[in-house]
């Protein structure tokens, strides 16, 4: 992972009270090879699991 960017935080209409929606972008880099869809999917699934475990986050 090269970079993670938080570019939006939303709370209000269409979200349960006390919940926030965070929009993140990820820049992935492997200096040894070109990343394939499978590689990116594995990283993203790992991130989703980690965020769910650590922050009780849900993918919207």
From TrEMBL:
Q: Which residues form the FDX-ACB domain?
A: 1-60
One Pfam family named in its UniProt record? FDX-ACB
Identify the InterPro entries for this entry: Fdx_antiC-bd, Fdx_antiC-bd_sf
Output the SUPFAM superfamilies linked to this UniProt entry.
Anticodon-binding domain of PheRS
Protein name from the UniProt record: FDX-ACB domain-containing protein
Origin organism is Epilithonimonas hispanica
Instruction: List the top taxonomic levels of the source.
Output: Bacteria, Pseudomonadati, Bacteroidota, Flavobacteriia, Flavobacteriales
């Amino acid at each position: 992972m090269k970079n993670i960017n938080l570019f939006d935080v939303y709370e209000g209409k269409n979200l349960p009270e006390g919940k926030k929606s965070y929009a993140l972008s990820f820049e992935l880099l492997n200096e040894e090879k070109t990343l394939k869809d499978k590689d990116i999917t594995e990283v993203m699934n790992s991130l989703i699991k980690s965020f769910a475990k650590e922050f009780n986050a849900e993918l919207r």
